[in-house]
Amino acid sequence: xxxxxxxEFRRAGDGRPLLMEVNPRFSQSVELAIRSGVDFxxxxxxxxxxxxxxxxxxxxxxxxxxxWLGGELWGLASAAFRxxxxxxxxxxxxxxxxxxxxxxxxxxxxAWDDPLPILRATAAMSRxxxxxxxxxxxxxxxxxxxxxx
Length: 149
Prior knowledge:
Blueprint: E1 6-11, E2 17-23, H1 30-36, H2 40-48, E3 66-67, H3 69-81, H4 90-101, E4 106-107, H5 116-130, E5 135-137, E6 140-142
Parallel strand pairs: 3-4
Antiparallel strand pairs: 1-2, 5-6
Helix pairs in contact: 3-4
């Protein structure tokens, strides 16, 4: 296999790394690499076109954080309505969000010059919530149709 791949490892109980997955597609998390200064899509495109890919930067920005707004809203709702286990205290979740948003975060998928993707995602999640897609069933959050969420 050649080109970009995401490689995922987990650690066993004794600390050994275990290979979980090799995925040769870009995932949404590639945005974090780009915001950190490593443009994997540009490198991959150059390689695919037979050009010499630009070299990887000698340094990248460390400590870059990327916020997933939908997940954070879901986590907040889960804590507020005690939708799943473990059930973090609402005050803990609010404190964590306040710390994360103290400095304006990079929000996954949000860009001032192209707001449509984040607006569509927010609208879709709002529609699902309004239609009752998220309910409490047996202590676990469920989606309509019985699929666990």
